[in-house]
Amino acid sequence: MYLGGIWIKGIVKIAIAVIAFLCGIYAHKKLKWKVQELSVTALICLGVMVFGLIDISHAIKPNIQQITVHYVSESKFGYHFIDENENNYDLTMDSITYGKLLDGAELDKDTLYTITYEAKSDTIIGIDTDNH
């Protein structure tokens, strides 16, 4: 079980919010942004930071679920799986987690996988193959 992907999502969102806010302060001082423009930037950054903290809360207190599924496809939004009851699961996994869990292997449509994931963020934290 690897919760690093959830931590990464949260930390990246917080870092982006801080950098954007610092850029807003710079723009206010050096580029003569109005206070309203800086305020809007601050509100957006605060919103992004809240989403980052929510992601981190999922890593601290995860809601771990496990499913047995077949891999269907991959998109830029994540991985699509289907179980024996035709239930669909769209889950995400960053490239670092992918490398740790699959060790360079590709997901195969003919393989039955047991996926462990954090349900609130739909993030994969474990993959095992069930060879029947």
The main sheet orders its strands as 3-2-1-4-5
Please give the count of helices: 3
Nearest-angstrom radius of gyration? 19 Å
Main β-sheet description: 5 strands, antiparallel
Shape by Cα distribution: elongated
Q: Which structural class is indicated by helix and strand composition?
A: alpha+beta
| Annotation, overall tally of beta strands | 5
CA-to-CA gap between the ends? 23 Å
SSE series = HHEEEHEE
> Approximately how much helix is present in the residues?
40-55%
Portion in strands = 25-35%
What's the average pLDDT? 93
Report low-confidence residues grouped into runs of 5 or more: none
Describe the structure.
This protein is an alpha+beta fold. The protein has three helices and five strands. It has a five-stranded antiparallel sheet with strand order 3-2-1-4-5. The chain starts with a helix and ends with a strand.
